[in-house]
Sequence to fold (170 residues):
Amino acid sequence: IVILSEDGSIDKMWYYSHKLKWDGKLSDKLEGIPYPAYTSEEERIYKLSTITTAIVENEANKGHDVLVSIEGYSFGSTGMRLFQIAENTGLLKNMLWLKKIDFNVVPPTTVKKLATGKGNAQKQVVYDCFCKETGLNLHDTFGFKSNKAVNPISDIADAYWMAKWRMINQ
Fold:
């Protein structure tokens, strides 16, 4: 989740964390949300959607203009992962709709094209463009030794570009 200021700079970023060392506030703009405990796939999806919706509502209640973008489906995904993504996205869309929170769906190719100029860019290139534009090096923040675009870093970069796209195309 990325909230941009009116000038397009990053105000706040959240990500889900499976690692205790990444839970909580990593910087003044970056916060890890502990991945919720769950006993079923349905509970996992419900909790993730509930937490995400609550963050969006909280930001809206602070008076921020909240414009929500959700990354569209990547039709290159296969197997169970594809169904998990679809179920999670479907429930999140429904919860946002029930709360009357406006959102749009941005195709992954559109996000990549905004970031890099190419709709088929690799995750690493998208992340490198994020670093160049924002001046942030998330590898340092997370303490990674490698500069590879891995999660949660690549997800944060994608979320930034989706927020940027929505700001430009409101």
User: Anything to note?
Assistant: The helical segments are 41-61, 79-98, 108-116, 123-134, 138-142, 153-168.
